[in-house]
Write the structure tokens for this entry.
Amino acid sequence: MINRRNFLQGTSVLMAHAGFSQLVATFLASRSAVAASAGDPIFLSAAELGRIAVLVDLILPETDSPAATAAGTHEFVDAALSACASPKQQATFRRGLAALAADGFDAMSGQERLAWLQRRAASDVVLSYDESFFKILKDYTLTGYFHSEIGATKALAYERVPGGFQGDIPLAADQKAWAI
Amino acid sequence: MAKSNRFDAIVVGSGMSGGWAAKELSERGLETLVLERGRNLRHIVDYHTALQDPWQLPHYNRPSQQDRAAQPIQSTLYLYDQSTKQHFVNDREHPYAQAQPFNWYRGSHVGGRSLMWARHVFRYSDLDFEANLREGTGVDWPIRYADIAPWYEHVERFIGASGENAGLPQLPDQVLQPPFEMNAFEKHIRSRFAAKFTDRKLICSATAVLSREHNGRGPCQGRNQCARGCPFSAYFSSNGVTLPAAAATGRLTLQPDSIVHSLIYDDSKRRVTGVRVVDAQSKQTTEYFARVVFLCASTLASTAILLNSRSSRFPQGLGNDSGVLGHYLMDHHNGGGAVGSYSRLADRYYRGRRSTSMYIPRFRNVAHREKNFMRGYGYEVYTSRQNWSRGLETPEFGAGFKNEITRPGQWQVYMEGYGETLPYKDNRVWLDPDRPDPWGMPTINVSMSYRDNERRMSEQMMADAVEMLKAADVENVSGFNRETIPGSVIHEMGTARMGRDPKTSVLNNYNQVHAVPNVFVTDGSCMVSSPTQNPSLTYMALTARASAYAVERLRKGEI
């Protein structure tokens, strides 16, 4: 969440600009608007979305930070694949989804699902991105998770307004990588 | 809208150069009309994405297929994403023709590319201004460093720039705020260079980003999201700096949505009396009149306006007695460089996002003459510790993988050279009146290619980059030397060059059209050669210098 104190640190001189408070007001208003969107899957069927939810949590499970699905990553995969992936990438992804269903993924145990994804990762690693279901899935999973609020602020370290630049500081033992 | 059609001065374009013309002319007492082809874009309040978090942007900032279809050229730019796409033109609505591939990256809004530029500001030196004469390429620059040095200082004091002076004759010292700090890896590279080379050093780039407060602006808050527009006014843009200064005089009229069709030439007065403007919305034509006109519409656009300004006196375009208008297009080339990683210094990190690079000033063809190529190059050097993206291409996943990639990875370095391109007559732009754009303007055709000198230079750019990284104990060093599409560095220059002789140039030593003394062209189109360093500071200095000169001549009744 926005922390006004953190947000405005070192910026007292800037508050004098009339446009600044107007921009901040717009920004605060836009936050609530973006948060309220959810609905039926776009690119995937409901069953496929369920399978993708399992896969994204295999890729990024709960650790000291929440799992991918807790950040809505499976929904990001669905929406972003629909809007951002090329027709060729979408076709590759559809073939991967078909293989997933044909292999009986829904009936598999947790161990079997893990083994399925490991096999897929090993066989896909030599393929180009456009032809690799695993690479596309991993791309959208990592992007969706690490750019989500949970991923950026809990799994990584995020500062909207760092307040300046310190070039050379000791790395603390618990320091996460910067999100951006 | 303008209340009257008569002004003292008209400035075409509101970007890097136009903002400076507006400021200097209005501060010197001229009622000044600035015509901008694009939409209005107000400082700060119109930077709608400036404070957005990644998760607030559509598709978490990833461009969509729809975006790429609307902006097939613009979307190939490294800066292009959901947070910046509104600052680039819709390529479908702003067509141009490429006789050879040419990337024309641009916006259509008040402020032009001063809103999205990469902010590096270096001076040229006499090594640059004397190069054409010394080596017999193109024509001689009609100015030398001493002519422009006071104007560099004038501009630097106003825009506010930070960085490190190299203390080298080929990269003159500047008026700079303290530089942003180097990280541990950069400090290491710098010390290795100092130990191994006498002619090469790593410095923090001179950048129009404030490390300290300056005239109520800044300092930089370490966001590195400059191309969205800076709500802290910490980098220089027309929107945030020069246009407000011009407005403060009370003599500025800024009119967006105004596409300049051509200049109006009066045969009897032998002067331009004004400009014809097509309203971007209504497409109606209006004429505006002034005693002096500054063309600052950008390299390609200013030359297109001159070419489109035909009269019985100038059948080939205004000021084109020499026939060189449209010719000698240049851009830098940046295809040569190297990457590497560094596994030591794992206990050091940084905080904040520094919005500039490190820089290695030119060292080729400085003290010694190279056998294989003329001119030289500097390098931009970028370093960081790897982030989660290092996990994208690997087969690993799961808890261990997640723990690993959420920690800072190894140091990595990317460096690429920025090389000078020689002026070639057949690298050019011309108009195609049979294919008008939606506003009835002839299509701009571009044809440009790099030649043997650039190719040989690029090979050396790669070789030197590899040598330097290895000298700095960098690991996994890998050089690259790739073909690049002209225009991609977004330093397009030339096509209405300055010169000493009206028979071989368009503009004189004050950026004044030789045959039409009340028309000045002060953007990148005036360039005579394409020195290694980033050119914007020179456009600003030439504009300020030409503005002062124009006002002086006006006062004396000479134009």
Notes: The longest helix of chain B spans residues 452-471. The CA atoms of residues 36 and 256 of chain B lie 5 Å apart. Chain B touches chain A through 70 residues (CB under 8 Å).
